[in-house]
Specification:
The complex is a heterodimer of chains A (about 260) and B (about 350).
Chain A: H1 2-17, E1 29-33, E2 39-40, E3 46-51, E4 61-65, E5 73-80, E6 83-88, E7 95-104, E8 110-119, H2 157-172, H3 174-200, H4 203-210, H5 215-223, H6 225-232, H7 236-241, H8 244-249
Parallel strand pairs in A: 2-8
Antiparallel strand pairs in A: 1-3, 3-6, 4-7, 5-6, 7-8
Helix pairs in contact in A: 1-3, 3-4
Chain B: H1 8-36, H2 50-80, H3 85-121, H4 129-138, H5 140-165, H6 171-182, H7 197-225, H8 229-264, H9 272-276, H10 278-309, H11 316-337
Helix pairs in contact in B: 1-2, 1-7, 1-11, 2-3, 2-6, 2-7, 2-11, 3-4, 3-5, 4-5, 5-6, 7-8, 7-11, 8-10, 10-11
The chains are: A alpha+beta (about 260), B mainly alpha (about 350).
Chain lengths: ~260, ~350
């Protein structure tokens, strides 16, 4: 019973040390410019999608497809916090355009979707309805609003992008932090194993397995059951035939009886 | 003991049947639910190939199954107790190597999942090592899976020590290391962006660990102990108490997590979203599966357990196989639910 308590205590300590994975949420599209289903009089210069929270850098894609299947996006999608935008080539034909997107959600899932807008007949001129000039100041203020929000995102994304990348890396901890956490947790587990073995083993055998044993079995394990597990999957055949020599080593199962 | 166990060959088939039903149900449900929730193709956006879209749920559910197996096989010594090694050792000698193999499968599946998720984000090619490194560096899911794989390897190492040194390696330690490896798994699922984030994460952790202990314990008990009435009389009452607790925890935490996640996602209105979104429908399916588990579990608990206690022959194997099948279906749906769209 006391041993159980010790192990439980150890586990609780380890759980406290568990990496503070900030498991961020699933991104949801809350607005766009042009809005989904909107009929526009003038051709937009760019398409902006607004999500409920920051989008991850690097994996976002937006494509704008015309009715004839031609692609109208000009360059790659640009991520600025919760806004993802892409510039458009001058749209020439009226009709329905489909905006398809695929972003990496903050919680690590790819999110895809589509929306459409209709370009009216009267407007083959690219008269720049959402003028980029008005934008910069209003960028942060009306983040959730879907109506006029998109107009602002075009300018100043260069520095914002770098800042967002840094903030994201800081929030994430980066791979370096993950390695530190893993190594720490493994050390903790190894220490727990040694302690538990020392406590469990009777005094004569106690010292010899405690020292080299954590390394030795895991070293043997890489050559031992790994190929079997990899190739044949969970087939128990491999299990029954494989560890047969190990079972014979356990001939000392007699002293199991001494276990309290 | 006057009761003689059936020959080993028949025991193996019985055990294989239970494990097979669990695995087949889980993989089938994962593929079916994964197809149901597959993201629609979007014009102009390259989508991952069929190898990724089918392979990812399969590998992911195999990861879950291997983790469940490790937890269940590690629980078995604890359920059997340590008082009668001359009776329990013949069973445990077969159990310990299987736990090591399951831990290796777990680790390999976790690493494969990282590769497949990288391929999913970079459609149209085999992911390079640099892409995988970037994925693990950038995305919490990759780090969580890496951590899970590390814990699985630790479980394999400790399991090997148990193969070598027997029950001198504490059973509690093996259980805890296995549960520890399950902790990062909820990171690969949904989360919400609110003050309720932490309670919902804790609820998810309880859900994952409770489900693993419950189904793992049942699979291990049914697969290895069903032919041994003397051992069953000791282990099943203990497992039954654990299972009752797990049933309550899993059901409650599942509802809290599912409904909470939907309620806190912007643009989602309850109760409409329960029937309109993929996520809501899968929550309904999982609730129905848990509800289907209750009568099966109750039959084992209230009808069969008294007879098992007295060492009489029962139809436990059949009932447990049915329950395990339903659990497998729930695990398959669980894989799809982590990836389904909420809105």
């Amino acid at each position: 019973m006391r041993r159980l308590l010790t192990v439980l205590l150890l586990a609780c300590a380890a759980m406290g040390v568990v990496p503070p994975y900030a498991a961020q949420a699933h991104n949801v599209l809350v607005g766009s410019d042009p809005a989904d289903g909107a009929t526009l009089a003038a051709a937009p210069r760019q398409v902006t999608l607004v999500f409920d929270q920051a989008v991850r850098q690097g994996y976002a894609r937006i494509e704008v497809t015309g009715a004839d299947g031609a692609s109208w996006a000009d360059g790659d999608a640009v991520v600025a916090a919760e806004r993802v935008s892409v510039k458009l080539k001058p749209l020439t034909g009226s009709g329905t355009y489909v905006v398809g997107y695929r972003i990496l959600s903050a919680d690590g899932h790819p999110v895809t979707g589509r929306l459409t807008f209709v370009l009216g007949t009267a407007s083959t001129t690219t008269s720049a309805a959402p003028s980029p000039g008005t934008g910069t100041g209003a960028a942060g203020s009306d983040a959730g609003a879907s109506s006029g929000a998109g107009a602002s995102s075009g300018t100043g994304t260069g520095s914002a992008e770098a800042g967002a990348a840094a903030a994201e890396a800081a929030a994430n901890g980066g791979a370096g932090m993950a390695v530190v956490w893993i190594v720490g947790a493994l050390l903790l587990l190894a220490a727990g194993t040694v302690v538990a073995l020392r406590r469990a083993a009777p005094s004569p055998g106690g010292s010899s397995p405690a020292g080299p044993s954590p390394a030795a079995p895991s070293g043997a394990s890489t050559s031992g059951p790994a190929p079997g597990a990899g190739t044949s999957g969970p087939a128990p055949r491999a299990g029954t035939s494989g560890p047969a020599p190990g079972a014979s080593v356990l001939g000392g199962a007699g002293d199991e009886g001494a276990r309290p | 003991m006057s009761v003689t166990a059936p020959p080993l060959a028949r025991q193996r088939t019985g055990g294989l049947l239970v494990a097979g039903v669990f695995g087949v149900c889980a993989v089938a449900a994962a593929v079916a639910a994964g197809t149901f929730t597959a993201q629609e193709s979007v014009p102009g956006i390259p989508m991952p190939g069929p190898f990724v879209t089918v392979g990812l749920p399969v590998v992911r559910v195999l990861l879950d199954l291997a983790a469940v197996a490790v937890v269940g096989l590690s629980l078995l010594p604890k359920l059997l107790g340590f008082d009668a090694p001359e009776r329990t050792e013949p069973v445990l000698l077969r159990v310990r190597p299987l736990a090591v193999i399951a831990a290796w499968v777990w680790a390999i599946c976790a690493l494969l999942t990282i590769v497949l998720q990288t391929a999913e984000l970079n459609p149209g090619g085999v992911p390079t090592f640099g892409m995988i490194a970037a994925y693990v560096g950038d995305v919490g899911t990759g780090q969580g899976l890496l951590f899970s794989a590390a814990c699985a390897l630790a479980a394999a190492g400790i399991g090997l020590m148990a193969v070598r040194f027997g029950e001198k390696v504490p059973a509690e330690l093996r259980v805890i290391v296995a549960l520890f490896g399950l902790l990062p798994i909820p990171v690969t699922g949904h989360a919400v962006n609110s003050v309720w984030h932490d309670p919902i994460m804790i609820s998810m952790e309880i859900h994952v660990m409770g489900a693993a202990a419950w189904s793992g314990g049942l699979v291990a008990t049914a697969a290895f102990l069903a032919p041994h009435r003397d051992l069953l009389a000791v282990a099943l009452p203990r497992f039954s108490r654990l299972a009752t607790l797990c049933l309550l925890l899993v059901g409650l935490s599942g509802l809290v997590t599912g409904l909470g996640t939907m309620a806190l996602t912007p643009g989602v209105t309850l109760p409409d979203a329960i029937v309109t979104s993929h996520y809501g429908l899968l929550v309904v399916v999982k609730t129905a599966l848990v509800a289907a588990l209750v009568p099966l579990a109750a039959h084992i608990r209230f009808r069969l357990l008294p007879a098992v206690r007295q060492g009489r022959a029962t139809a436990l194997a059949r009932w447990a196989t049915a329950e395990v099948g339903v659990m497998g279906l729930a695990y398959g749906v669980a894989v799809a639910i982590t990836r389904a769209s909420i809105a």
